[in-house]
Design brief:
By secondary structure, this protein is an alpha/beta fold. The protein has helices at about 15-25, 40-55, 60-80, 95-100, 115-125, 145-155, 175-185, 200-205, 210-215, 245-250, 260-265, 270-280, 290-299, and strands spanning about 85-90, 110-115, 135-140, 160-165, 190-200, 235-245, 280-290. The protein has a seven-stranded mixed β-sheet with strand order 3-2-1-4-5-7-6, sandwiched between helices. Helix 1 (about 15-25) crosses helix 2 (about 40-55) and helix 1 (about 15-25) packs across helix 3. The chain is globular, with a radius of gyration of 19 Å.
């Protein structure tokens, strides 16, 4: 096992190295759900060390792999079949979907993250050719002015537009998530917002594994609303689609070790309890609630 003298996570950007290792692990499988030929290069030695050092680092790869695969499916469906023309990947980290997915060439893709992360991604991808129009934007999305500038640029690119926030919201306090939601909803090009979401019970479980290392690395897990997707309604969004991480892992054959026992025990639980457990963690497609003026215009 690789040991590290300091905490494995130095800051929130290191989580991108960690998740890239999981994409590389999945890509190595003969029955891979997706292929990311760039993941291992981007993860580097530090990414591998993080996974080796974190408690249950490899054993808990499955939800990250499932999340990637399900988001791939939704993004492809929206861009191919439902007319989404602009995609804004917020806090994109080391995401390579603009290169590895069979996106329509007409799609405009904005890859947004801290300056250092944008520089690192571009330097490591070198001369690789994206599948669609790709623009990198260096910005700190916690800063209201920088966030507004990014969203204004994407809104001007034309809609329908999709915002993607993979692995982002859990690291933000609720007031920042609300502000981001309001900023997105106020720009008419944005029709959809793709996120992953944890329930408070899931966050409590993570306190026993990853959360201490993340908190020590100045990347504490903060956001897990008790009211689930209803949290987003006040900022102008509503749930259009919820994919339970547990159910999707079963569908994709990437369930955790011992999942059969949990499935058996869940059959013995009351229905309400089973439903709560199914929504402990999931991938959510939100749709923007139309304003009264928009509703009237569509009549």
């Amino acid at each position: 096992m690789v040991t590290m003298s300091d905490n494995p996570i130095r800051n929130v950007s290191d989580t991108a190295l960690w998740v890239a290792v999981y994409r590389a692990m999945e890509s190595d499988r003969p029955d891979a759900l997706f292929r990311d030929p760039y993941a291992r290069r981007l993860a580097g030695e530090r990414g591998a060390s993080i996974v080796e050092t974190l408690p249950k680092g490899k054993a808990f790869a499955w939800p990250m792999i499932v999340r990637t695969a399900v988001m791939d499916e939704i993004i492809l469906r929206l861009t191919r079949d439902q007319g989404v023309r602009t995609v804004v990947n917020l806090a994109a980290g080391l995401d390579t979907r603009a290169y590895r997915l069979a996106l329509p060439p007409s799609v405009r893709w904005f890859h947004v993250d801290f300056p250092d992360m944008v520089r690192y991604t571009r330097d490591n991808l070198g001369d690789e050719r994206p599948a669609c129009s790709l623009e990198y934007i260096a910005a700190d999305l916690r800063d209201p002015a920088e966030r507004a500038s990014v969203l204004d640029r994407a809104n001007a690119a034309g809609g329908p537009a999709l915002a993607v926030a993979e692995g982002l919201l859990v690291y933000l306090p609720p007031e920042q998530v609300d502000a981001l939601g309001r900023d997105l909803a106020s720009r008419p090009a944005f029709r959809h917002w793709l996120i992953d979401l944890a329930a408070p019970e899931m966050l409590r479980m993570l306190q026993k594994t990853w959360a201490p290392a993340l908190a020590a690395g100045n990347a504490p897990m903060l956001f897990a609303p008790a009211d689930g997707t209803r949290f987003f309604e006040v900022s102008g969004w509503r749930e259009a689609e919820y994919r339970s991480m547990w159910s999707e892992a079963t569908r994709l054959k990437r369930s955790m070790k011992g999942a059969w026992l949990w499935r058996f025990l869940m059959r013995l639980m009351p229905r309400a309890r089973r439903e709560r457990l199914a929504r402990m963690s999931g991938i959510v497609l939100l749709e923007r609630r139309q304003s009264q003026n928009e509703t009237a215009a569509n009549l």
